[in-house]
Write a structure and sequence with these properties.
Pfam families: CRISPR_Cse1 (PF09481)
Structural class: alpha+beta
Organism: Acetobacter malorum DSM 14337
Helix content: 25-40%
Protein name: CRISPR-associated Cse1 family protein
Number of helices: 14
Radius of gyration: 26 Å
Distance between the termini: 75 Å
Order of helices and strands: HHHEHHEHEEEEEHEEHHHHHHH
Number of strands: 9
Largest sheet: 3 strands, antiparallel
Strand content: 5-15%
InterPro entries: CRISPR-assoc_prot_Cse1
């Protein structure tokens, strides 16, 4: 990772690449983290000789096989059925799925053997991102399929790794959980973070699953798994954003949503929120923006999971900047208005599409089609914020509302109007009524419409009732 010219890992799966970044960051946090901001700046340049010497002291913990401790595996052999290496990957079909012939979005029998390196990266990915998998099969420290955000200075691999390493002190080799008997959870036992801290090195090397790899000497050909691995509670991983439902409740890790990561996902993930204290950017992003110079981009990724079912793998790269409270407030207004219009659109489509996934597809399309114009609008927001021109020559909020209104009506008409004359009278009336209410919302004449106008700071339209009241 410290060699010149090395830009990124190149595993055959995107989820392995994402996990590999976390693994490398964890290695540095284990063996040679910066003590503080001053030390971080002093050691920004890669030092392969120092790094090799620091990591050598931990080499005994990173054997995949042998009679002693095995990387991310139970300290002692496990009894049980040997399963194919498939189970190391979140998108592999489980036994029940195969029996029911239900593996549509997941896959069966892809990996009957794995090279040692891929097996090592596979077991790390599973332990750090594990979804629920039946009774006693624990999820990862961040739940199933955590959302991961990584600072990317856009130089070489070392720069990315170093940008994300938390400050701290080197850990003892015994701090790695596979160097000791597994802390099991049959009776509901939980492992809490160190007293007074959100995490230690185990955040990067947690062991929610009890596993032992089986080898034929050339490949990993099987995995033995036993339930009731370590159950984690109260930890805050430094590479993931968090949220809470109420101020006095515990923090919960955020998880990816299905579909493209776009502007609707920014707040609380790559841009701090100023309108509430219920979300928190990942520690690495907060430190990068506040203490380490900022700039570059952020990698956002992870599995979108519904219970034990993987739905989508998200991997995106977004620009990363520090914004003033006023700029974030204006950004929040644009995103909130878009959310209000998107909700009004899918609500109006109920008579046409029912309550199924088709409406969710329309919502995703709405955000996708408005993404470019949003970026243009936000660029104007930043220009207005930093401009000396008063007043600013463009009403950005009004222009943005026009974009949202045009896209919502375009989508409704494309889905709802074709063949409308061939439908039963009641259905036709329902579609016409739905479009009228959508139009009312887009013009501020209903409760949803008032919320959209309020988010953008626009005056509500004058109604006949309000005209009479003003005359009186």
């Amino acid at each position: 990772m410290a060699e010149k010219g090395v830009v990124s890992p190149d595993w055959p799966r995107a989820d392995l690449n994402l996990a590999c970044y976390e693994f490398l960051i964890g290695l540095i946090f284990l063996a040679d983290p910066p003590r503080d901001a001053t030390d971080w700046y002093a050691r920004r340049a890669a030092d392969p000789k120092r790094l090799r010497a620091k990591l050598e002291a931990y080499a005994g913990a990173f054997n995949l096989f042998g009679d002693g401790p095995r990387f991310l595996q139970d300290l002692e052999p496990l009894d049980g059925d040997q399963k194919a290496p498939d189970i190391l990957f979140l998108d592999s079909a489980g036994a029940q799925t195969i029996r029911n012939n239900a593996d549509v979005m997941v896959h069966r029998f892809r990996y009957d053997r794995l090279p040692f390196a891929e097996a090592a990266m596979g077991i790390y990915t599973l332990q750090s991102q594990a979804a629920s998998g039946g009774a006693g099969n624990r999820t990862s420290m961040r739940g199933g399929g955590p959302l991961i955000t990584l600072v990317n200075p856009e130089r070489e691999l070392w720069d990315l790794v170093w940008a994300n390493v938390p400050c701290g002190e080197p850990s003892d080799i015994e701090a790695l959980p596979w160097m000791r008997p597994t802390e099991t959870s049959e009776k509901g036992q939980v492992r809490l973070p160190p007293k007074g801290r959100d995490f230690d090195v185990e955040a990067f090397f947690g062991m929610p699953r009890r596993l032992r790899l089986v080898s034929n000497g050339a490949h990993v050909i099987g995995v033995i798994q036993k339930n009731y691995g370590t159950k984690y509670s109260g930890w805050k991983h430094p590479l993931s954003p968090y949220y809470r439902l109420k101020v006095d409740e515990e923090w919960r890790p955020k998880h990816p949503t299905v579909g493209r990561f776009g502007y609707r996902n920014w707040l609380g993930v790559i841009v701090r929120r100023t309108d509430n204290d219920l979300t928190e950017l990942a520690l690495n992003l907060r430190v990068w923006l506040a203490e380490r110079g900022g700039g570059g981009s952020v990698i956002v990724g992870g599995w979108a999971v519904d219970n034990a079912k993987p739905l989508d793998f998200v991997f995106s790269q977004q620009r990363l900047s520090a914004y003033s409270d006023k700029e974030i407030g204006d950004l929040t207004a644009l995103v909130s208005a878009a959310g209000g219009v998107a909700d009004a659109l899918i609500s109006s489509l109920r008579p046409v599409l029912g309550a199924g996934e088709a409406r969710a597809v329309q919502k995703s399309e709405f955000y996708l089609e408005t993404e470019a114009r949003f970026r243009e609008s936000f660029a104007l927001i930043l220009d207005r914020s930093r401009s000396q021109n008063t007043p600013y020559p463009v009403n950005i909020e009004e222009s943005w509302l026009k974009v949202l209104r045009a896209q919502a009506l375009k989508q409704f008409d494309a889905v709802g109007l074709p063949g409308v004359s061939l439908r039963r009278a009641g259905r036709v009336e329902a579609v016409v009524t739905a479009r009228r209410f959508l139009s009312m919302a887009l013009n501020g004449y209903s409760k949803p419409g008032k919320a959209i106008f309020s988010a953008l700071g626009l005056s509500e339209p004058v109604t006949k009732k309000s005209k009479k009241a003003s005359k009186a």
